[in-house]
Amino acid sequence: MPRRKLNDAFLRTVKPPAKGQEEHWDTLTPGFGVRVSYGGRKAFVVLTRINGKLCRFTVGTYPKMGLGEARDEAQQIIKDAAKGISPKEREAEERRKAKTAQRNTFGAVAEEFMADHARNLRTRGEMQRMINVDLLPEWGDKPISSITRADVKAVLREKARKAPIAANRLLSLISKIFGWALDEEIIQASPAVRLRRPAEEQERERSLTDEEIRQLWPVFTSLGYPFGHGLKFLLVTGQRRGEVSGMKWTEIDNDGWNIPGSRAKSKQGHRVPLSTLALEILEESPHIGDYVFMSGRGLNPLEGWEGAKRRVDSFLKKPIEDWRIHDLRRTMATQMRSLGIDRLVVSKLLNHAESGVTKTYDRYAADPEKVAAMERWSDRLKEIISGEKSESVVLLHRKEKA
How far is Cα 8 from Cα 114, in angstroms, rounded to an integer? Predict the structure, then answer.
């Protein structure tokens, strides 16, 4: 076995044997050499022992693999062999590490977060949009554990320059993702802990005027089922978007809608009296799947409210400034108070989480004050839509169906 310090000049000029093959061994890295075959093929080889067994490995061919790369690979194989590790075992470990690193990138963790934590949230669509637009371009391929507070602040600072309030929402989402990753033991600490909101916010007080309601109602009608019906139902009942999205036919009985605590934001279920106008909307909705306002084949809660709002805005002849879907709920509450309905009754209808009386009363009870309040709002809404004074009389008690 010829031995010499292998170099590129030798590899270029070495002649193949007249037959068979010859091996030339490197004096710089013992156990590393090149095997030259009769046909002219030059293969880098390693000869070493793993757990006492003599093993031979081919690491590449010249000139496709350079001498320096081949020598480095050979040294790694010899180093691993001293620990009883074969090249196949090392490759398997590297694949495992690469897979783990890929799984723990921010993009992969965010995907798991959305599938696990956010799958049933009504804001899922908006959360995914923020991830796609604001976070993945910056952090998508980065290991989540490498993201620092400075990285988070930089993203928020950039967002706040254009949209300060949206930057607050982005911080909330970032905190949730890192908090979830911490709970799942993917990271050891969250870089978003105790970060201040980029912008100061005041509680929104916007409610729709009578004229704005008159503009929106026929557009809701034109939009049709399911979103047109759903938007009307939000205004008529004053319930939250997520609760209406998941509304099932089985939750309706005796002119009332029983919202389970599992879907209520306050985690406390309650009964919503269904007014004449609410029942009309339900009667006009197809009873096909489990959900009243169904998505697809009725197998999933309704999603895509913001897209529906954009369609509403595009249909309006005269734009309505700065209105949001949640304003429908606030509008009902404001209108009820203007009708002289007691604040406590309105609070019960909105299912606010409060202390005292509203905390202990039977939320599923057929409360006559709630029933009457809903009917008064229904009549008032009809007046607004038609522009004519209603002559209907609202009774304090409604007879239950037999």
Answer: 54
